[in-house]
Each structure stands twice: as structure tokens, then as C-alpha cells.
Amino acid sequence: MRVYILIWNFAFGGAQKFVVKLANAYQRKGHSVTILVADDHGSLKELLSEDVQVQQFKIPNTNNPIKLLGLNRKMKNTIERDSMVFVNGPNNFRQLARLNFFSRRWKLIFRLHNDIIIKPSFLSMFKRFEMRQLFGQNRVRILAMSENQKKEHSQSFKTRNVRHIPNFFPEAPKRSYIRSDSRLNAICLGRLSVEKGIQTLVEALSLVKFDVKVDVFGDGPLKNELVKRIDQLQLRNIEFKAPVLNVDETLSKYDFLILPSLSETFGNAVVEAFNVGLPVVSTDCAGPLNLIEPGLNGLVARRGDHVSLAMKIDKLCELIINDALDEEFIRASVPVQYREAAVIEQHLKLFEN
């Protein structure tokens, strides 16, 4: 089967990481895979299998009928009929779903990396109506990242085409990390942007009582503001580092993960941490709440509440120092349905019946 995956670039980000992983998994399954990308630059490109094709292709953000007709001609020449087309980004989905509404040429899968929110305006009623029509097509499936997201979008857009198929994670080797001193080392993975809650983490670290050092792997628009606040608080227990490609290897060098997000529909980093045996302190976003068993594989703090986050970090440090957590239990916290073979099989069955 021909599989096409649309993405905007190969820069370091959650959606891009997933696309690379998905393309490689489909290729290992024996399918012909092409990634259509607006900008083919970015560090994650080097992780692609050499058998995955990459083609530059940009979907315009337009409501102009003439431009849509031109896009339709380009798409017909680029994507084979009856192919599976995996779409990332609401504009990419909207434009392809508009074309598919009339032609029914492709099997479209749209992954909800973020919730679809239609802001109030004099056009909001029309926009919601259009999205309901696009979501409701026989040849469209919407992939939610959690059961809560599936329920919300099914109700909001009145469609039965939303499915919850989780992200997938190949099994990581058992880590051999041994702590060399009394200080605990924590890791945080994420873009330095408002929704990732790094501001809350900075404030929390001014209250944490245990000797813990946090390395934050990521970059983004808030970095200068965060560094300024760290200097104001005279913190010496946090450091920013560049994003890494080999997440499993990096995670295995730490004692636990902190996920301070204000919004997180699934929580890839939580499962990646569990995969190598790391416990997690997370905020109470929908995705992580479905994964964490408090006191067994992690703890949950109130999102946006730095006092709550500090208390949970201290509590997890206490559990780790007292050897109260079972690393094998944590590794087993990654459910079978998150394994590669099971997830890809679910993708391939989306259009049965």
C-alpha cells in the first residue's frame, strides 16, 4: 500500500518526531512511504530510514476557489488514488479534506496533536459547520491522543469518525544508570513555550527542599525570559540544554522526569520515561492522568501550581532515595497497545467496513 505523510518541516518537535517514527514503522511493515514536507530541513530528517522518500510539497492556507482547484490538480499528480494519507496540522487537513469531499480519492487520517478550537467570531458558526462536514466523510478518520479528546471532539463536531489510537514506542533496553552521589538528577523534555509550563517548574525549584538538579532539554521563545527569572531567583539547580535526538539514551542517565505542562493531550515524554524505567512527576493534564499510578510509577501535581509541583518533586525524591519504587513495574507501565506492531495494525484497519 502507498502511504503519504504530510508535515511542515523536520525541526525538533513532537509532531515531527512522531512523523519520522511513523514513516519508519510503515516502511518496516513493507509499505511504500513518502513524506510530503513544506520545508525539508531539520535535524530529525537524519533519523528517517533511507527507504522513506521525501518530497517538498506545501499546502496553501487559502479559501480561494481558484487556488483550491490548482491544489487539486497538484494533489492528483502527487498522491495516488486510494492511498492512505496521514495528515498533520489543521490547515493541511482542511484543504485535503475539502478536495476529498468531492473526489473521494484518498483515505485521510488526521492526527489531533492539539485540540481543534474554533474561536468566537461572526464566521465561527460557518467554520464549525464546515469542520463537521469534513470530519464526517466516509474516507476520513480522526486520531485522538486520549479517550477524553476523542469524546470531546466526537461530541463537538457530531461525528463517529474519531478514534483513539495511541502513540507507539519500541521497547528500550534496560538502563544501567547508577547514581554517583546524593544529588538526584531530573530531566525535563519540551519546547520552551507557555503551554509546556517551564515557568511553573522554575518557580517550583525555588521551593524544592531536596538536593535535585534539573536539566531541561529544549528551546523556544521563552528561553530569555526563563533565564532572567532563574537569575532573579538565584537558582543553581536548573540548566537548559539543546534538544536531543536519542531520547531513550538520554533519559536513561537520570533519576526521574518532570512534565510541568499546562496542556498535554497524551504525554509522549511520560511513556518514554516509563520505557526506560524512570518515574515521573507530571501535572494533571488529561494524557498523563491516564498513565500515572500515584506512588507506583510517579506523582501528579496541579497544573500551573508551582507549590503543588514542588511538593510532588520532593515527595518523589523521598520515594527514590528510600528505594520505594520498582523499576521493572515502571517499565511494565507501558501498555501493550503502545507497542509498534499493535498500533500500526490498528492504523491499517481504520477503513475496514
Q: How would you summarize what this structure contains?
A:
This protein has 353 residues and is of the alpha/beta class. Helices cover 37% and strands 18% of the residues.
Give the arrangement of secondary structure elements.
Blueprint: E1 2-7, H1 14-28, E2 32-37, E3 53-56, H2 65-78, E4 84-88, H3 90-103, E5 107-111, H4 124-135, E6 140-144, H5 147-156, E7 162-164, E8 184-189, H6 198-205, E9 212-217, H7 223-233, E10 238-241, H8 247-251, E11 256-259, H9 268-276, E12 280-283, H10 286-289, E13 298-301, H11 306-321, H12 327-331, H13 340-348
Parallel strand pairs: 1-2, 1-4, 2-3, 4-5, 5-6, 6-7, 8-9, 8-11, 9-10, 11-12, 12-13
Helix pairs in contact: 3-4, 6-7, 6-11
Provide an overview of this structure.
With 353 residues, the protein is an alpha/beta fold. The chain has 2 domains: 2-169 and 338-348, Glycogen Phosphorylase B (Rossmann fold, 3-Layer(aba) Sandwich), CATH 3.40.50; 184-333, Glycogen Phosphorylase B (Rossmann fold), CATH 3.40.50.2000. It has 13 helices and 13 strands. It has helices at residues 14-28, 65-78, 90-103, 124-135, 147-156, 198-205, 223-233, 247-251, 268-276, 286-289, 306-321, 327-331, 340-348; strands at 2-7, 32-37, 53-56, 84-88, 107-111, 140-144, 162-164, 184-189, 212-217, 238-241, 256-259, 280-283, 298-301. The strands form 2 sheets. A 7-stranded parallel sheet has the order 3-2-1-4-5-6-7, sandwiched between helices. Strands 10-9-8-11-12-13 form a 6-stranded parallel sheet, sandwiched between helices. Helix 6 (198-205) packs parallel to helix 7 (223-233) and helix 6 crosses helix 11. The longest helix has 16 residues, at 306-321. It starts with a strand and ends in a 5-residue tail after the last helix.
